[in-house]
Automatic annotation (TrEMBL):
<feature type="domain" description="HTH hxlR-type">
    <location>
        <begin position="22"/>
        <end position="120"/>
    </location>
</feature>
<keyword id="KW-0238">DNA-binding</keyword>
<protein>
    <submittedName>
        <fullName>Winged helix-turn-helix transcriptional regulator</fullName>
    </submittedName>
</protein>
<dbReference type="InterPro" id="IPR002577">
    <property type="entry name" value="HTH_HxlR"/>
</dbReference>
<keyword id="KW-0804">Transcription</keyword>
<dbReference type="InterPro" id="IPR036388">
    <property type="entry name" value="WH-like_DNA-bd_sf"/>
</dbReference>
<dbReference type="InterPro" id="IPR011991">
    <property type="entry name" value="ArsR-like_HTH"/>
</dbReference>
<keyword id="KW-0805">Transcription regulation</keyword>
<dbReference type="Pfam" id="PF01638">
    <property type="entry name" value="HxlR"/>
</dbReference>
<dbReference type="InterPro" id="IPR036390">
    <property type="entry name" value="WH_DNA-bd_sf"/>
</dbReference>
Length: 127
């Protein structure tokens, strides 16, 4: 297992500018929005048409789905294919870069599930 978080390499104090430009901070901000992880997980199963995704994610508006997919596309994680049907249909799939994110996300999800009781206990103790 490769350790990425190495506290010995961080300056003390950590300059705000360095933190703001950190690639890890950037990616975690992107992934932590309300819909991104769910969409990446769904697209990790198979390609989806826009309306399929809209039906698969309860509570997401068409506007937010469009915005999130465009952001993932601009990050190179999702690709969009337009079919020349009438009306045109659009399909979304993970790019190879997006697929490469599934394993670390799965590890994080596994950790969260394995430790959810401990985290909940700690929160209750401090509440």
């Amino acid at each position: 297992m490769r350790v990425v978080l190495d506290g010995d390499r961080l300056p003390d104090p950590v300059p705000a500018g360095e933190y703001e430009t950190c690639p890890v901070t950037d990616v975690l901000r992107r992934l932590s929005d309300k819909w991104t992880l769910l969409l990446i997980t769904l697209l990790g199963r198979r390609p989806y048409r826009f309306n399929e995704l809209n039906r698969a994610v309860e509570g997401i508006s068409q506007r937010m789905l469009t915005r999130t997919l465009r952001t993932l596309e601009s990050d190179g994680l999702v690709e969009r294919e337009v079919f020349g049907t009438s009306p045109p249909s659009v399909e979304y799939r993970l790019t190879p870069l997006g697929v490469s994110l599934l394993e670390p996300l799965s590890a994080l999800a596994g950790w969260a599930v394995d430790h959810q009781a401990e985290v909940a206990d700690a929160r209750r103790r401090l509440a």
